Amino acid sequence: MDKMGAIFDQCVIAFVPNRELPDSLIADYRKKIEGNGGTTPKARRDGSIKLEDVTHIISTTADFPQYREAREMMINVVRPTWLLESIMRNKPALTRPHTPDPNLIFHNVTVTCADLPEGDKDAIVGGVLAMGGTESSSLTKVVTHICALTMDHPKVALALEKGVNCKIVLPHWFHDCLRLGKRINELPYLLPDPEILKSEPDARLDIPSSEIIKGASTPRPDILPMATDSPRHLNVFQDKRLMISEDLNIGGRLRKVIEDLVVGGGGIITTSVHNADMYVFQWRGGRDYAIASYAGKDVGNLSWLYYLITHNEWTSPMKRLLHYPLPKDAIPGFKDLKITLSNYGGDSRTYLENLVLACGAEFTKSMKEDNTHVITARKSGEKCDAAAEWNIEMVNHLWIEESYARCEIQRITDPRYTCFPPRTNLGEIIGQTSFDMETLQQVYFPKEPTPSPEKPGPLKRPEMNQKGHKEKTPELPEDVNMDDDDDVHVPPVVIPAKKSGLPRGRSKSTTTLPKGTTTPIANRRVSAGKEIDTPSSTNSRSAKDRALTNLHGMAPDIALYEKEKKRKGSVWGGERAANRIDKERQDERNSSPAVKEPREREDSEDENTNPKRQRTGLPQVSMRLLVTSYGPWVANTAREDKDKRKMRELGVLVVQDPIQCTYLAAPRMVRTKKFLCALATGPTILHTSFIEACGKSSVLPNTEAHLLKDTENENKFDVKLKDAVVRAKANKRSLLRHVPIYCTNDVPNGPDTFKSIVQANGGIFSLYTGKISLKKVDPKDDPNGPEPVYLITGEKPGDRKLWPGFEAMAKRANMIPRIVTTSWILDVGMAQQLIWKDEYLIDP
């Protein structure tokens, strides 16, 4: 065989047909593969692939029944583009850029960088490689994106001259995609006129539609939609056994229609959970649900079943959140929450409403001051402005989706949930979160279910097959043994109870809604009214600190990928080996303190009370260390992860929440948000040389030898660090208690920085936009006399126009208005005492 004919030598390539990859196209691809030395086995009668025989699977999506099993067997699953590129290159192409894995958001991106600083370039290239993309040092035909700051670079000029089909984007696009973990539209970031740099980021923006949630916006549709094909052509149920649970409470007529569609499409209706391939439930729970789930059967709800009938194409019930049975009880942490939506529309809004109700929270159409959360697609609009004034948490939809998928409320301090890229409506990435089987198993069926001898199962109806209604149980294939569960046995998993740290409790009354209602789920609460109810006065409520964390763990993936690219030999074999190494590295990263901080925090609490429960093999946590401004960790995640693992082995847990730390490490006294928020807790403050000492020692270094001493900055800030720590311990995070502090939106470094510092010290923080008002107070009715009220502000024109209104408001409330620079709050936080100098007043 000549060189041309040996491209796919030793490759056995199977196909997963669907609407994007029809049989006619597959036939054409088979000829190309076989003409180049490859083999293309036929699928089984039920459409499944004999995985033991194949090296590659060609599929346009990861949503097919055998995807997970194929990846566990290290079989390459690639898009058809891999096949075409291999033929074009006359050798097997790299598989990673052609993966259909939705988690690798840059899988089809080839980036080349233009006029970027070296550090920024390394960060972007590293992120692209880690998320499935590739990098080219020069401009070639395969480049899809040029990352540049201006249009002046020779690469950009050459691309325009040669007419290269690529997009010229700002680096901000890569940063925002990596922060979200989702790929957003490049349009607002395209040079030469990127929208994100325009002066009106809050200008009107169209609400996008989302194809992925069509047919999946409600768990219980009102009507059975019409199939795209006639019933006799409905083959999605071919040779499949379907069981419909009694908990659906559907009428006999509708059940008969569904059963006829299944039987007419070559399927079988069964009443035995052991014989079923598909099981349709309304609720999670019960013996049948546990048996079906544990055995790996397709378990979905009525919405999922309707979707199969409508599209005549298999889809996993775990791919779309509202295709899976609902929890009978609220997701832990949501019971007392009141949530409203902003900047979502159409199916996206219906989907999120139902998701809120499925979590067990109360959904409100309008927003009042007692709302706890606003889920918004962009940080713009009346509800968002009101939420900022009333200290109501603002998050994007990823928070509610991932809380539902992970079966517990997620911390809103995760920066992914508070990321709102400018000129982007996040509705474009809605519905991309899926369930994970391991998580569901841990929560809902941690033990292997056993059949009940007294109640063998619901046997109320005879089975129906494609030849008619006969009271006969079809025989199982010879290679299936439903009584042998050894291959799927998983030991019970113990899930520790978690504290949600949620806002104050809410009313628990419920409203029962008519069956079949699409938007509200039965027995959940819905409030209606105008969009925003503005109170006459504001009752400020403390909000959780928003910690900003960095993406960790990319560097090991990049190094492995680069190493794998250079390895000689069969590409599919190399990719198998790379996947195995990647998995081991991923497991290692997932066990690092940085990634598992919340779990380790709770595990360590259990260890302190019951040492016998220690499961990690690590010593008990004796120090909770917060690190700030440590140079060796900047843009070096590999070094950071290595140091954190080493410190954890010595009993030091590196935390990101300043309120949780008992020790603070810094190279000097710095007025960063982390340093000032942590100082309010009165921690022991160490020099960052302690981190280096941990890396060189097998025992925990003496902290006394690494106490931070910084005479230069003590003189600069006019404060003794030792005295400040003593005062902080005495204050007990109450230095600014009862001190009202306002902040303008355009203040330098952003209002969130100062909000964190104020709240860490027990203060009352509110954003001032000119709309807020205080109750008028007569000086005669105020025996304590006027108290100061502070406005932290910058000097932009937008800030200046707010000053007169603030002064007038303060005087009406018999308070002393103090319009101050940011230096005031920074000095107060550093000194840990309420100091005042007239020089803090801003020059009008």
TrEMBL record:
Region named Disordered: 446-550, 565-620
A single GO cellular-component term on record: nucleus
Highest taxon listed in the record's lineage: Eukaryota
Ranges of Acidic residues composition bias in the record: 476-487
Compositional bias (Low complexity): 508-520
CDD domains per UniProt: BRCT_BRC1_like_rpt2 (cd18436), BRCT_BRC1_like_rpt3 (cd18437), BRCT_BRC1_like_rpt4 (cd18438), BRCT_BRC1_like_rpt5 (cd17743), BRCT_BRC1_like_rpt6 (cd18439)
Compositionally biased spans, kind Basic and acidic residues: 460-475, 577-602
All residue ranges annotated as the BRCT domain in the record: 3-91, 101-191, 334-406, 731-842
One GO BP annotation of this record: DNA double-strand break attachment to nuclear envelope
Pfam families for the chain: BRCT (PF00533), PTCB-BRCT (PF12738), RTT107_BRCT_5 (PF16770)
Family matches, as InterPro entries: BRCT_dom, BRCT_dom_sf, CellCycle_DNARepair_Reg
Record protein name field: BRCT domain-containing protein
Organism, scientific name: Hymenoscyphus albidus
Lineage of the species this protein comes from: Eukaryota, Fungi, Dikarya, Ascomycota, Pezizomycotina
